[in-house]
Sequence to fold (151 residues):
Amino acid sequence: MEVIDLLENENKEYWINKLGECDWDAGVMLHRIVVNGEFFDTVGEGSKVLMLTDGGELVSFCTYSKVDDILPTELTPWMGFVFTFPKFRGHRYVGKLFEKVMQLAKEDNYEKIYISTNHTGLYEKYGCEFLKNDIDDSGKPTRVYVKKVND
Fold:
């Protein structure tokens, strides 16, 4: 398995099509903003779409971004749009994406990363700690988690 950066991959169109196979609302949105050229306007310059691949299969994906769905906020960077396709769930593959996000955050001199989610018990497995309850950009409650980069 390999983590690739969608926007810098030589097979970008192939992987965009694979991303388009996701039926999760946020995944559909991510696909739309990538295809429409709105990705950086939405989540910030320098952001990345990271994909865990296995040969030609898309296993899991996430973003590493300046902003996510908590606006306005001084918190940055964010691991967002985290999704694993159903047939790959239960193997903790998101951990490989976490490793890459931690590496990028460290290279960018960040001490922490943040995650906005309505899941409880999922991100704690990866060393994240609950930070606070908040409201996302659609007005819905969300939980904000933090993970220290050097953990």
About this structure: Strands lie at 2-5, 48-54, 57-65, 78-84, 112-117, 129-135, 141-148. The two ends are 23 Å apart (CA to CA). The mean pLDDT is 93.
